[in-house]
Amino acid sequence: MAQQSGRKCGRATKSSHASVMLGIRIALGGCRGREAIRNFAKVGSYRQQHRQAQYLSARSTSAFTKCVQEVVENKTPSPVCSYNEWDPLEEVIVGRVEGATVPQFSVEVKANTYNKYWEFFQRFGGKPFPQEHLVKAHAEIEEFCNILRHEGVTVRRPEPLDFQKVYVTPDFSATGMYAAMPRDILMVIGDEIIESPMAWRSRFFEYRAYRPLMKEYFRAGAKWTTAPKPQMSDELYDLTYPVKSAEERHLLACQEKFVTTEFEPCFDAADFIRAGRDIFCQRSQVTNLMGIEWLQRHLGDKYTVHRLSFADPNPMHIDATFNIIGPGLVLVNPERPCHQYSMFQKAGWDLLPAPTPCMPDDHPLWMSSKWLSMNVLMLDPKRVVVDKNEISTQKFFESLGIECITISLRFANSLGGGFHCWTTDVRRQGTLESYF
Fold first, then answer.
1. Which of 312, 315, 280 is nearest to 295 (CA)?
2. Taken in order 372, 378, 382, 383, is the CA torsion positive or negative?
């Protein structure tokens, strides 16, 4: 009889503990909380549920409250947190020059580059970029890192990899490219870091350079998501995509015809730019509609992804066309006007034309344009990193009351990016707000 009573008591204790844990999960909310509410509703009859509620209420100042407090108090803040492009920057990933390899001249590379450089890609594809150029670019990026540290920003780096190595999948073979532009592959939305499903075959395995950092952030409490990895079979590309002239590209872009198809989701993170609850993006040569839709569904109702379009014959990455530098303040490319300009006017935003770049015509820009002059990095609303050669851009920011921190990035520009491209901001101060 005593043993029977003990078993009954044990069952009661377990039941009580389960009720407390259900209550904790309900109190904490989220998907686990919603699941707990459904389970709580299935406990039994109304009378049983009423007794459960009475029990939880009676325990509210003792075990239940203590458990909730322990769970909440022990929740470690995420090391990843950034909602926009301008709040005070605390931690950043800066890319590496080491190992930078010219991508092989495949259809998607041809569609994204200027014909004056096609011979360069045909000659050097799969080989390192010119060594004397890499040495200068490396010195610029290391100085950039030093300046960021001096300004109080924690700098993290990807791992160096051998990008000349040939890799083979069931659908293609290719050499790699580099781990220079973390903005292309990594997107931070709140406390979540998302690996993007990039469209160039040469970048298929680029994520490996960042995996040690991703695992570190995840173990420290960050959310870590990898978007669906594309097969990159021939079906993802229009193998007959015509790219003979800028006029032809303009016409195709107006018709929303690009080298990437809708075979599967793909996007470069650099085709998205953040302003709190509103994220702006473009359909481009590397970002398709399926990729945009995947991100919107993944983020849910908490965020709105707005698709923009521009008078751009060769759209690829939004931040040298439309760069948000503050709440309701955008630096825009005057040669690539936004077709949705009135939408921003109605919202009270200011779209400010970027000054004409100072880049000399003979400087090699194998995978980008002179408009990297507007590809700046905001350290906070009153400090910006600008190329020291771009005097007109410096004067523009000074007229807005924003202090310019100047560094030369000319040779690093040649690899395809400016300050914004060469970085991914991991953590900024500030909270989630609506600006639009």
1. 280
2. negative
Report the relative pairing of strands 350-353 and 304-308 from DSSP bridges.
unpaired
Q: Supply the pLDDT for residue 36.
A: 42
Show which residues are catalytic.
Answer: 268, 317, 421
In 3D space, the residue among 413, 252, 247 whose CA is nearest the CA of residue 320 turns out to be 413
Report the alpha-carbon distance of residue 154 to residue 429 in Å, rounded: 13
- Mention every residue, 6+ apart, whose C-beta is less than 8 A from residue 68: 23, 24, 27, 28
Give the chain's largest Cα–Cα span: 96
Report the pLDDT averaged over residues 189-205. Answer: 98
Distance (Å, whole) CA 372 – CA 389: 12
C-alpha distances out from residue 302 to 10, 74, 189, 282, 297, Å: 44, 25, 11, 20, 10
E strands, 124-183, are 154-156, 167-168, 173-174
Cα 418 versus chain centre, distance: 15
What's the average model confidence in pLDDT over 99-117?
94
At a CB cut-off of 8 Å and minimum separation 6, what does 321 contact?
282, 310, 312, 315, 332, 333, 336, 371
pTM recorded for the entire structure: 0.83
Q: For residues 317 and 307, what is the distance between their CA atoms, to the nearest angstrom?
A: 13
